[in-house]
Design goal:
The chain is an alpha+beta fold. Helix content is 29%, strand content 26%. It contains 7 helices and 13 strands. It has a 7-stranded mixed β-sheet with strand order 1-2-3-5-6-8-7. It is globular.
């Protein structure tokens, strides 16, 4: 199978593998993602995908321009490596990652860095697979994040999270959601979550990171979707309307005085 690069020249005719639909609500996400990508190509963004219509791609960018609160000068940051459906178990993850490694070496990078967790979680890279490929844990952040890296030379310095992201906490009541258009699903779901909060009388605000500096100063390691409740970090999983409604109801039950 052939790998192709999505570039400024072909992005309008290429589908984005993580959001197949190009019309309706899903189409909003595709358009938002493509606009985000167009603005990042000048920063060195690379999007490689299998030449198929499916979820089989890797996206990465020089760490200095990564939309993540990390210190990893000289490294390449992997935004996302996703292989799913019929393409799983056929070696395509290795094919994509090896292509990224070759490219990073050619560009004189010190190695690769990627956001993961203590165990496999949605929208984060699988730590078991990364360890199998030689990645090590560079740093950790509450409650479960791991910054993993693959140095090309053992002498290179170890990347780390910025101090402000190590212990995610806000001084704001209610639900606060930070997100970007790096993930195409947010353009669809963030407005829907705002509607759910309004229907249920829950305080809710959504803050979109619009620049790399804003993302690098984020209060938690993940920036694509990061939900807080009453100042405490909740999840990086992009919630459906049903899941969010259930969360609101559960939090209310827990906060009711005894006997009510």
């Amino acid at each position: 199978m052939e790998l192709i690069d999505v570039t400024e020249e072909n992005i309008e005719r290429e589908h984005i593998c993580c959001a197949i639909a190009d019309s309706g609500q899903a189409g909003l996400g595709v358009r938002a993602k493509k606009e985000w990508m167009k603005e990042r190509f000048a920063d060195g963004l690379v999007f490689k995908k299998l030449n198929v219509r499916g979820k089989c791609f890797i996206e990465y960018i020089p760490a200095e321009k990564a939309w993540a609160p990390i210190e990893a000068a000289g490294y390449m940051y992997i935004d996302c490596l996703w292989v799913s459906g019929q393409y799983k178990g056929q070696g395509y993850s290795n094919l994509l990652l090896d292509a990224c490694i070759r490219d990073a070496r050619t560009k004189g990078k010190k190695g690769l860095v990627v956001l993961s967790a203590k165990k496999k979680l949605s929208f984060l890279s699988d730590p078991k697979y990364l360890k199998y490929k030689g990645f090590q844990t560079a740093d950790t952040a509450e409650p479960y994040f791991q910054l993993m890296y693959l140095p090309f030379d053992a002498a290179w310095e170890t990347p780390h999270f910025k101090k402000g992201a190590k212990h995610p906490k806000l001084g704001t009541a209610g639900y606060v959601l930070y997100y970007t258009h790096q993930c195409p699903f947010t353009a669809k779901y963030v407005p829907l979550l705002a509607e759910v909060a309004a229907r249920n009388g829950a305080a809710f605000s959504a803050v979109r990171f619009e620049t790399v500096k804003e993302a690098q100063d984020a209060p938690a390691p993940v920036t694509t979707f990061c939900l807080f409740y009453n100042g405490s970090y909740v999840t990086n999983e992009i919630l459906s309307e049903k899941k969010f409604e259930k969360m609101i109801a559960e939090n209310r039950r827990q906060e009711e005085p005894d006997g009510i």
